[in-house]
Amino acid sequence: MATIYYDRDADPSVITARKVAIIGYGSQGHAHALNLRDSGVDVRVGLRPNSSSVEKASSAGLRVTDPATAASEADVIMVLAPDTAQQAIYTESIEANLRPGDALMFAHGFNIRFGLIDPPDGIDVVMVAPKGPGHLVRRTYEGGGGVPSLLAVERDASGKAKPLGLSYAWALGSTRAGVLETTFKEETETDLFGEQVVLCGGLTSLIKAGFDTLVAAGYQPESAYFECLHEVKLIVDLIYEHGITGMRYSISTTAEYGDMTRGPRVINDAVRAEMQKILADIQSGAFAAEWVEENRNGLPNYHRLQKEGAEHPIEKVGAELRAMMPFLSSGGPRPQDVSGG
Ligand code: NAD
Ligand code: MG
Predict the structure, then answer these.
(1) How far is it, in rounded angstroms, from Cα 70 to Cα 45?
(2) Which ligand has the shortest distance to the CA of 150?
(3) pTM of the model
């Protein structure tokens, strides 16, 4: 059975006795900095002086310094820059400012698991990884709740790394919801697998393949869009709330019979074998090496694939249909129009 920690397991005085640096002020960074500050923690935000986030963090009442100053002032350094930027930030601004007894923290295990960051002995290495996007981490905290987190200790130099991680998770609001103990290895590998095979890669490819099949057979793209993309949310909401059996209870018996007999033909043994290969590439570090190399080369494949994806016919018909359903949107800007910085 997994170990899950709650408020009663955390000692708030551990984190309030420390000086915390939050490096980065994007999705996770703003949520961590503000939640910790509101929980009574001494927080500073480390940003490049030319970052567009400096103004945002300052006007939220946070103290902002450059990353090296933040790391040198603090004894708990939470790295919340993009995973692909962390190695350079660590080498340039953090490494020289680590003192024995400091804690280096992450919200995802990528750089530690694949050896891109290798902190010196004497430093606690801890992960508190919220299982939700930053705006929810902030909004849920403000509403008195919390987003669950994963907690992992890679190195316990002080002998007190776990109580520190739990106390940090308390300040973030996560012990209100549950903090699941894991390892850097498990978090990193399952996170990459989930996003590649199910949540992002598997789902978007499934939607597009279904859409393409209907359109190629002569059906209207609008019908294919509603069927293969729009309705995904309705089904996923039912699964999220009631599980797969609960979802099947809500659909027609015809849909249920088709689900149970045809689903395994789509996700067949060949697909399952491919899932194992993808997992093996994650475990061996082959995927990480490929992604690091792609970044070094200036992201040519990434940009090409992004462009191809945006030009798929499902995006054109989708934009037209969603414009007729403005109530679908929460009213905020499109995610692709919100840039970090
Ligand atoms: P992000 O892209 O939203 O924000 C990164 C921020 O880092 C930028 O806004 C900027 O302020 C800062 N930054 C960029 N380059 C920098 C530099 N050279 N020096 C200093 N600051 C710099 O990133 P994010 O999505 O919040 O991800 C941060 C970490 O949290 C990652 O490890 C990620 O895997 C993890 N994480 C993200 C989510 C999520 O939902 N976004 C969920 C769980 C964990
Ligand atoms: Mg994830």
Answers:
(1) 7
(2) 1
(3) 0.91
- Residue 90, classified by CB atoms within 10 Å of its CB into exposed (0-12), middle (13-18) or buried (19+), is buried
Residues lining ion ligand 2 (Cβ < 5 A) are: 191
Residue 212: count of CB within 10 angstroms of its CB = 15
Beta sheet of 103-106, edge-to-edge order: 4-5, 179-181, 149-155, 124-130, 103-106, 76-79, 19-23, 42-46, 63-65
* Residue found under tokens 């930053």: 134
pLDDT at 339: 43
Instruction: Establish how many alpha carbons lie within 13 A of residue 6's alpha carbon, considering only the half-sphere containing its beta carbon.
Output: 4
Structure confidence at residue 337 (pLDDT): 56
Q: Which of 108, 135, 230, 303 is catalytic?
A: 108
| 107-137 tens-digit pLDDT | 999 999 999 999 999 999 999 999 999 999 9
What Cα–Cα distance (Å) separates residue 144 from each residue in 129, 130, 137, 141, 174?
19, 16, 11, 5, 11
Q: Is the CB of 77 under 6 A from ligand 1?
A: no
Judge whether 32 counts as a catalytic residue. Answer: no
**332: burial class by Cβ within 10 Å (0-12, 13-18, 19+)?**
exposed
* Percent of the chain residues past pLDDT 70, beyond the cut: 96
Task: Report the C-alpha gap between 137 and 134 in whole angstroms.
Answer: 5
Compute and round to an integer the Cα radius of gyration of the chain: 22
Q: State the Cα angle at 104 between 5 and 283, rounded to 5°.
A: 75
| Dihedral sign for Cα atoms in the order 47, 49, 51, 53 | positive
* DSSP structure string for 184-197: HHHHHHHHHHIIII
Q: 239-273: buried (b, 16+ CB within 10 Å) or exposed (e) per residue? A: eeeeeeeebbeeeeeeeeeeeeeeeeeeeeeeeee
* Protein residue with least CA distance to atom 18, ligand 1: 89
Q: Is 80 in the pocket of ligand 1 (CB under 6 A)?
A: yes
DSSP state of 84: G
Smallest CA-to-CA distance from 170 within 143, 132, 141 is with: 141
Angstrom distance (rounded) from CA 85 to CA 111: 10
